[in-house]
């Protein structure tokens, strides 16, 4: 069996990074983001990245770290509202942004991973999302053509994996990680725990090991919260 487990994020990404590359990154906000791999990409100094991800984390966390170091050329995202640096760079013309409805983004990655170059969808018809895209009529309804996404490298975060790369996501941390994992030439995963082959119930596996080429154990992780909302203390 091929050894997929690497000692750290830098070694797992060795030989894969280059300027101008296209990345798919799993995660949603700060949930299920590949923190160690993002740090290693930042430390590598690679630049002019195009990144497909639901969003870019928040200021100074997640993909926000790569924005802060100006390593990102273009983001393909569905939501950017919690990142002031993202907003500043976009409005200043320093960052190219391709906005994509959330479900469409997930399907573009799934399609890319399935070898489907494009598909038609009603989402975005008649809006700015449709600008410059082919429109086709099916049964009296207009649909726009969306291209599948297939990147050079996908970076994802999982919960538990066996030594062959079969992987389980934990609850909502599954989010975009699963479709992103399939939508690239090489998928690098960071997980919280690696167990021997045969330890996982086959029916619980979310991502087959055939998709995972390299892995690291990133634990322990600090639970970070995007917003903390508390009730005002009542007067005694």
From TrEMBL:
Which SMART domains does this UniProt record tie to the protein? CoA_trans
Question: Which organism was this protein described from?
Answer: Sphingobium xenophagum
Q: Could you tell me which InterPro entries the record lists for this protein? A: 3-oxoacid_CoA-transf_A (IPR012792), CoA_trans_fam_I (IPR004165), NagB/RpiA_transferase-like (IPR037171)
State the PANTHER family in the record.
Answer: ACETATE COA-TRANSFERASE SUBUNIT ALPHA, KETOACID-COENZYME A TRANSFERASE
Q: Membrane-crossing residues?
A: none
Please give one Gene Ontology molecular function term for this protein: succinyl-CoA:3-oxo-acid CoA-transferase activity
| Keywords (A to Z) from UniProt | Transferase
| The protein's name | 3-oxoacid CoA-transferase/3-oxoacid CoA-transferase subunit A
Cross-referenced Pfam families, in alphabetical order? CoA_trans
What EC numbers are recorded for this enzyme?
2.8.3.5
- Top-level enzyme category: transferase
């Amino acid at each position: 069996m091929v050894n997929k487990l690497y000692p750290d994020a830098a070694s797992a990404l060795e030989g894969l990074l280059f300027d101008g590359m296209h990345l798919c990154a799993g995660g949603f906000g700060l949930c299920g983001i590949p923190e160690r791999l993002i740090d290693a990409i930042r430390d590598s100094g690679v630049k002019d990245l195009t990144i497909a991800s639901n969003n870019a984390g928040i200021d100074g966390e997640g993909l926000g770290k790569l924005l802060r170091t100006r390593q990102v050329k273009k983001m393909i995202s569905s939501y950017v509202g919690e990142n002031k640096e993202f907003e500043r760079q976009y409005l200043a013309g320093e960052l190219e942004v391709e906005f994509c409805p959330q479900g469409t983004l997930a399907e573009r990655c799934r399609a890319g991973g399935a070898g489907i170059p494009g598909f038609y969808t009603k989402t975005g018809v008649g809006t700015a999302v449709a600008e410059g895209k082919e429109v086709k009529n099916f049964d009296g309804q207009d649909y726009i053509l969306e291209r599948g996404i297939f990147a050079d490298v996908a970076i994802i975060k999982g919960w538990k994996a066996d030594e062959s790369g079969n992987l389980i996501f934990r609850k909502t941390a599954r989010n975009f990680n699963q479709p992103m994992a399939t939508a690239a030439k090489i998928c690098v995963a960071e997980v919280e725990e690696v167990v021997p082959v045969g330890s996982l119930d086959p029916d619980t596996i979310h991502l087959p090991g055939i998709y995972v080429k390299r892995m690291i154990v990133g634990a322990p992780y600090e639970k970070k919260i995007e917003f903390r909302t508390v009730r005002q203390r009542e007067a005694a």
